[in-house]
Amino acid sequence: MTRIDKNPRGATSAVTVRGLVKHYGETKALDGVDLDVHEGTVMGVLGPNGAGKTTLVRILSTLLAPDSGRATVVGYDVVRQPRQLRRVIGLTGQYASVDEKLPGWENLYLIGRLLDLSRKDARVRADELLERFSLTDAAKRPASTYSGGMRRRLDLAASMIGRPQVLFLDEPTTGLDPRTRNEVWAEVKRMVGDGVTVLLTTQYMEEAEQLASQLTVVDRGKVIANGAIEELKAKVGGRALRVRPADPAQLRPLAAWIDDLGITGLATTAVDAGRGSVLVPVLSDEQLTAVVGAVTARGITLASITTELPSLDEVFLSLTGHRAGTAADAATADTREEVSV
Amino acid sequence: MSATTVPIADIEADARIPLRGHLRHTGALMRRNLLWIRQDPESMFDALLMPIVFTLLFVYVFGGSIGQALGGGQDGYIQYVIPGMIAMMSMTLSQGVGTGFSQDFNSGVMDRFRSLPIGRGSVLFAKISVEIVRMLFATAVLMIVSVLVGFDIESWPGLFAAVGLSTVFASSIMWVFLTLGVVLKSAQSVQAMGFLVLFPLQFGSSIFAPTASMPGWLQAFTDYNPLSALADAARGLMTGGPVAHGLWVTLAWSVGITALMAPVAIHKFRTKS
Description:
The structure holds two protein chains of two kinds. Chain A is an alpha/beta fold. Chain A contains eleven helices and 15 strands. Chain A starts with 12 loop residues before the first strand and ends with a strand. Chain B has helices at 8-12, 19-39, 45-70, 73-107, 109-114, 120-148, 156-183, 187-203, 216-224, 226-239, 244-271.
């Protein structure tokens, strides 16, 4: 029952994953994943549907056994020490859920009792968390009557009962409207403020940027990039400038001129033929201004110019040269091709 | 706040869950299953209405003619059919563990339970216990209705013994339904499969009519059908008649089914991803 040591940098690793493999028949859900989450940080795992995100969370929360590889949470091995591990984690998301038929309070009380709190402590904890997640008024109503946001908050409250050291959030805002999504983000930020280590999976760069400090990008069971979120954002182009010429015929010349500016850092300028625009990753306001200046100098009439956060697709395109989840089509990427330099 | 913090010492301690822990977890989960009934009283309709409907149906639709053939008229048939219906009710209600489990898996609640440091058996035992409570409730309703239509409880100890025997056998059948609940994808398929399994067992038995007039091939089935043995034993216990054969056969089946299916159910439950 040994607990793991410190990692080389001195910070204690809360989650350590080495060479994790899980196959479902022919499908490689996880194909040798390595991952480290340092104590007190938020790790975002970004990837498209079917990338293996949920499989990873299910293995880390002992719901699924890996085929090979090793994973520990706060030093406890997912295969050999599942009971100790379950005591230090919280799980919320797509799959772990609350009991819809029970009132909110009863859901929390039940979990308190299952976590070996005394009746009194379980009651106090349930009241406390309902208050904290603004659900006190709905405490006695069955969870089935809750709105999407309330349910997700109850879900988060349920995963906090045991004061977990590590919290797994599997796509915490999938299916929520933007306002509710912001509510959930605010709650997650508060939990992080309390010092909980979080591993969250998401399909949205925006969500990762809001919540995570570290990012691991996964695709078809493999880690394709990881690092501090700022590094990765720089790598994929912190922002993307979308420039659409009024005359589609000018699309390629425009892309070439912009590319000639040579300002685009690590990612390349790309032509999005489908939407008749050039996508330019920019790292700073100065670069943005330079692009606009170059376009103006050439006297090209623009239909629109917008900045956007890179979408998951763009992150993938920049990192791998192919679109999310479609490696086979990399060569035939339909609407977009890289500008040759 | 700090009063409820899990002490580090406990986290480091041996991972084995003490008996008290198992009891606490099972109790908390039973409370959950009982709250379902309070939140959704309609879920008790089957346990409440089935005994009423079936008793009235069989006694008044078939009672006269089968009773005549038996030689005791409708009153004779009531004495014949009621003990067997205890067995039938408990079979039908034991399906509930399968459908309930299936719902828990599909809603994701089971994932949360399985991510908690509890023995997985507590989830099974809590569900079985609450279904037995439902079964006993249905049996009580059945006995009230049957007395109202003229059933004569000849032996109270015999009645309790018959209910006990039905419960024992039904608990063994519950492992089959638990397995179905874990293996099949939806509660509807569990119910459909349950119906397919139970219907021939219930009607191809001595519950509703003596088997003597049935064709030979069917008798071969009914003679080996554990529900015939259970119905015969219950009848013997409640209204007099041979008990021993039915009793031992039922107990043997219960032990056999449990020995075979409990490990399967537990294994499927533990390894379900």
